[in-house]
Specification:
33% helix; eight-stranded mixed sheet; Rossmann fold; alpha/beta
């Protein structure tokens, strides 16, 4: 934790968390001062950064890199999303920021300038923007915007060359991302987490209670630094659980994934000698059984939380009989 836990204003952070959990219209600017922004960035912002690192690592496994152009961080807050993408080494020379809070914009711009002094930073004055192209970043905004603003954001995404959108791994956020995916799918190609670009299988009536989410493995510091232990206690958060829903789209067509490519949704549900896995693939979403007696190595991975998020599954009926890792060379960069 970058800030000392003794210096953090925990009461203000608790009040901010309660405000986030309430959801609904944003209301007045809740960034009351620079200290609150710094405290948030060192705690909640850092956890969001772990989600972005996970998403970017998944994109790296796919061999995907953003198209050339500029980076646009919409609803930037403290700039966590843009900073994570720049830290990954993506070759951007300019970042444009928009947020309804002038204090957040100032904080994000200053932090990016400090961490990435060679990057140009511009402030957008309108949430709608006028520019086309670029890579649009959206992070943890769905619980705070109205349906009208969400519609305008989807239209903003429609003008982008690529979109990386990260949200909490809740049912509501996931379903909203699926809706955005379906609106944009004719013009932008789904890259991740989707292993295909057909209609989302979770829209079938048999899966109306399911949602697309994954679990991010927190870094070691979450369990070794005293500041994080205090954060978990003060906020009532289980640091071991970090669910995420995300959507990545690209105007360029991507190389098809290998046959049987399947994305694990949620976690394996492990029982004695067997685990049930919900997988998303081009044929649709289905539950399959993984038996220790058939695939002992993969069953151990399911037990220990090491099961791959994306792999090539082969099933006979509802029984998994083979799970093959998908290596980076199996993928190709998006085609122009």
């Amino acid at each position: 934790m970058a800030s000392s836990s003794e210096a953090i204003d925990w009461a203000s952070l608790r009040a901010l968390r309660a405000r986030f959990l309430e959801g609904g219209p944003p209301g007045p600017d809740y960034w009351s001062n620079a200290r609150l922004l710094a405290d948030y960035d060192a705690t909640f912002g850092a956890r969001i950064g772990w989600k972005w690192s996970y998403v970017l690592s998944e994109l790296g496994r796919l061999g995907w890199t953003p198209p050339p152009g500029e980076l646009v961080d919409w609803g930037c807050g403290t700039g966590v999303a843009a900073r994570a993408v720049l830290e990954s080494g993506a070759p951007f020379e300019r970042v444009r920021l928009w947020d309804r809070s002038a204090q957040a914009l100032d904080f994000a711009a200053a932090r990016i300038a400090s961490e990435h002094p060679g990057i140009g930073v511009e402030i957008e004055r309108s949430s709608a923007g006028n520019a086309r192209g670029g890579t649009l970043l959206v992070s943890h905004v769905l619980s705070e915007i109205s349906p009208q603003t969400r519609g305008a954001l989807v239209e903003r995404a429609r003008r982008a060359d690529a979109v990386i959108w990260v949200e909490p791994g809740t049912f509501t956020a996931s379903r909203a991302l699926i809706d955005a995916r379906e609106q944009l799918r004719g013009e932008l190609h789904p890259i991740a987490p989707c292993p295909h670009d057909e209609r989302c299988g979770l829209l079938d009536a048999t899966h109306e209670r399911d949602w697309c989410h994954q679990f991010v493995p927190p870094p070691t510091v979450a369990f070794t630094e005293a500041g994080w232990a205090r954060f978990g206690k003060e906020m009532g958060i289980d640091l071991r659980s970090l669910p995420v829903s995300f959507l990545v789209l690209d105007r360029r067509a991507s190389k098809p994934l290998p046959s049987g490519a399947t994305r694990l949704l949620g976690r394996p549900r492990v029982q004695k000698g067997m685990a049930t896995l919900t997988g998303c693939s081009e044929p649709g979403v289905r539950d399959l059984r993984l038996r220790r007696s058939v695939l002992p190595g993969q069953f151990r991975e399911a037990q220990h939380g090491d099961f791959p998020g994306l792999a090539a599954w082969r099933a006979e009926g509802t029984e998994l009989v083979a799970i093959q890792p998908i290596e980076r060379e199996d993928f190709g960069p998006p085609q122009p």
